[in-house]
């Protein structure tokens, strides 16, 4: 069988890369010629995790053809490889909504409402009776820590907690100590431009007839990040115009307090206010307890804009 590429979403976060590595290695153990690839370079957080566990970053691709693919941590076409409509999708392992997705042939699809794709993969290893290598466990653990803010996000489930404990044991790290190191590594943004920062963890969604770009950055010092708000507004407005989005929403998430400041450009701002129960002043508002794009932003705003 020809090589199969395992791909996470564009602007890959730690789960997109960790899940690609995790699934590719599981497939390899089961006799499949699979390779983890990425649709972008790793973030500082992901790079920290890869270096900590002695892993190389997957090679970056723009097109998957002529290979078949397996998708992890996404299923929406606009978040996937450029030629996704031209290749065969063999598997999808994900923890997001299903949207804008169809295939010509049957496939294996596993989508669960958990905090992280790597929590699903942890169980897939067990179900396949394949041991998880220590370095693979480390990057998968890093993904769970990142996606659940060290198990503090409202997206966290018992499955995530169980998987994190198992993976920490296999990887030989203390869950809390390593988790804090990882999250802090991802908040070092001082020497990066605003346009770079807003693209580190950003996804585009079609909600009704509205194109919405939702980006998120994590920090341990919200005041320092907000001091650059004018830079962020300018970068968001520029990307919105260039890419043709209607709305651009940026979450600035404090990983210690587990709250977010929200910045918005575009319209309809009123829909965001109604969906999230907030009021913007000068394009800024505070979201008490809002930390999850997947659970606390996208479903509510999709319902509002589709109505």
UniProtKB/TrEMBL annotation:
Gene3D superfamilies: DHHA2 domain (3.10.310.20), inorganic pyrophosphatase (n-terminal core) (3.90.1640.10). It is an enzyme of class 3 (hydrolase). The keyword Manganese applies. InterPro entries: DDH_dom (IPR001667), DHH_sf (IPR038763), DHHA2 (IPR004097), DHHA2_dom_sf (IPR038222), Oligoribo/pAp-PDE_c-di-AMP_PDE (IPR051319). This is Manganese-dependent inorganic pyrophosphatase. GO terms for molecular function: inorganic diphosphate phosphatase activity. Residues 179-305 form the DHHA2 domain. It comes from Gordonia westfalica. Its cofactor is Mn(2+). SUPFAM superfamilies: DHH phosphoesterases. It comes from the Bacteria. Keywords: Hydrolase, Manganese, Metal-binding. Its EC number is 3.6.1.1.
